[in-house]
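worker-03 picked up job from queue 'complexes'. Input manifest follows; two sequence lines, order preserved.
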Amino acid sequence: MSSLRLQQVSLRYESASVPVLDAISLEVNAGELVVALGPSGCGKTSLLKLMAGFVAPSGGEILLDGTPVRAPGAERGVVFQDDALLPWLDVLGNVAFGLKLRGVARAEREARARELLQLVDLGGYETQRIWALSGGQRQRVGLARALTADPRVLLLDEPFGALDALNREQMQALLLRVWQASRKGVFLITHDIEEAVFLASELVLLSSRPARVVERLKLDFGRRYAAGEAVRSIKSDPEFIRIREQVLSRVLGALAVAA
Amino acid sequence: MFEPILIAQLQEAEQVRSMRPAQVAAASKSAVLLSPVQWSVLSLTSLLTLWWLVSWQGWVAPLFLPSPQAVLAKLWLVSNQGFMDATLGQHLAASLSRIGLALLAAVLLAIPVGLAIGLSPIARGLLDPLIELYRPIPPLAYLPLIVIWFGIGEFSKVLLIYLAIFAPIAIATATAVRAVEPSRIQAAQSLGATRVQLISQVIFPSALPDILTGIRIGLGAGWSTLVAAELVAATRGLGFMVQSAAQFLVSDVVVLGIAVIALVAFALELGLRYLQARYVPWHGRG
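worker-03 finished. Artifact:
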């Protein structure tokens, strides 16, 4: 059972007077879906970059199963806001890319990629060109690509931010199904309150810059969806609405304090 | 020879792209009579007709403007019997082999150099000033020095063309490498890519469309330089043919040579555009 732990992690860019992140501690354990919610520009993406190893923290420690994270690596899969797919490869080539880098034989990596395309409802799209896909389809290819490398944790940087409301809801449901099927630890950042409340098994609320953890909530709406309840039934549940409003007022409160 | 065409096309494409749908509709409505290709055919046909008319009516002496028929007759004659000890095919082959050799050398050296400049601050510090130093100098300005150093043989000509092609390709490659989207690189790193894999499987393919554009621009510069170099010191080649014909006032061969030079340049440009469409079809659609 893998876990990614952040202990008192802070980040300050040399040129900036205000730190980006201030003493953030959180834990992404296997089978959990941790959502970091915060206002735009609060440093959420920086937090994810630290966890992925693209940026080194100024203080604190990031540990993956006890080993410090110092560089990007295949044990932490990342899904990007702007899909970051490779247009010279077809859908199958993109999904199999991680295994190709590892030297896995073609037949084997393509078989694995096909399975994951099935998992993200893109069976039959193997030979499509990337630029022929819609935004939601591209994000699903990105998700499948990150999963093919079989990472220990999955990090998602506002993956549905650019999608329309309908597509976004379908993608949220898809992510929950994939999460339940894979049993991996997932960390997702978003500025969409409803999305955060719906998906999270643990919701971490961040303040505006410097980002600090202002609240942690254990939620189970995502698990209820995975157990078979309909999306609309969950999102119209009075309990869901109450928590959504509570989180909203906390976000607004945090913004007011910052201002 | 190429650059102005290329820039004009880019600007045109940019304008079309930045237009709103209504503007595009309005723009295409004004061209409703003929398609752009048909307009091009019309303008070229008009030019040829005017040429034919002027020479047929005798408004300009054949010495200054030979008739189209005379040029076509010369095409036949020079192709079969030759001019200045070589047929048109041999002149053409001499020019093409020079530019081919120079292009091959430039592509083989400029792409690695461009990659190095784009990837390494040290290589950039060392090589960038050298390229920027010689690049703005017209090749014909340093041709005399090359002739003093290396004589008037093939090597000097190929070297001159090589230098003209090298800079655009190296600069295009370096710029393209630095413009690769960071998220693409990060994505590959998160999939476990090593530095070599990152360069060969992400950065190079990402830069390829711009490298091909660099080759197009370089080839244009190289072709102009080639013809100019052959005007100065050569015994074969299209530039030499035009130059010696001019000395003997054989103006139909001069016109013939110019036409062949233009057609070859056009064919090279079309060939590279085909390569771009064939091998980097994602260009602009990322």
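worker-03 released lock.
The domain at 64-279 of chain B is CATH 1.10.3720.10 (MetI-like fold).
Chain B touches chain A at residues 181, 183-184, 186-194, 197, 201-202, 205-206, 208, 280-282, 285-286 (CB under 8 Å).
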